[in-house]
Amino acid sequence: MNTLKHACPPEAEGQKTEFAETGRGGAGPALPGDRIRAEKLREIDLFVLDLDGTFYLGDRPIDGALDFVNYVRESGKKILFFTNNSSRSPKVYMERLAGMGCPINRDQIMTSGDVTIAYLKENDPGKSVYLVGTPALEESFRQEGICLWDPEEDRTGPREAGVTASRPDIVVVGFDTTLTYRKLERACTYIREGAVFLATHLDINCPTEYGFMPDCGAFCAAITLSTGVEPKYLGKPFKETVDMVLLHTGVSRERVAFVGDRLYTDVAVGVNHGAKGFLVLSGETKQEDIKNSQVKPDEVYGSLGEMKCLLCGESWDHSR
After folding, report:
1. Counting beta carbons within 10 angstroms of the beta carbon of residue 143, is it exposed (0 to 12), middle (13 to 18) or buried (19 or more)?
2. Residue 20: its pLDDT value, please?
3. What are the structural domains of the chain?
4. What global pTM score does this model have?
């Protein structure tokens, strides 16, 4: 991993630099609010970073993102990656980040699938679940002891513990890149028959290098239109996610910042539940979207790269 111990001017050690007066390392007139924006970052002990559109796009890290992570780690603060994308296992994300020069351990990655598993274990232990998800998500559920409903099994015999004869107790919908019409039909049927409807997250689209692809929220919209039933969403921006992060890290709520490119998930999870919500403009949300949003970020940054430069007092090239 790259080290950045000598990349920042003395202000990182608490000394005053030219940045404190000019805002951009002496490169020109201060941009309004730069010192305030930097101070907001210095108040944070844990940065909970989104992945798609925040740390990387496709198979490459966004410019400056790795520098930010390295600097935060060296400064003694904590990083936790949290993605609403439940199509992959935490192990896959760990391997992907390592391939980008950002190795992490299992304690530093959390997904909406993890939050959903924790919710089921706490609130519905032993209940049967029909999962609309990828094989990776299915494996995560099985490893954690969730009772997955297999519609192909013979239900004519004696009932098993936690399993009804006709349908599962719960339908969980994730970001299923293996979605079929048969899965969609079964989910709607079970929900109409009384199964509880849960969803790992509410993201409507998933950003890619080439645009966007339909995400969990889009699938759930189709199911809701068919059944008239709204799901209980987990993941960002809901309270269960914040509670799990605080329990997992031990950091006090007011010293946590959720950082991401979406107002309605990444930012909202922080500002709605007593933590901070920082928006980066490297993914889905653009500056002009903020004025029409009910969710207002605590601060807006161009990217993780700009955040690192503000912390260091370095000049950030906004054409990057």
Report:
1. exposed
2. 35
3. 10-84+237-312 (3.40.50.1000), 113-233 (3.40.50.1000)
4. 0.83
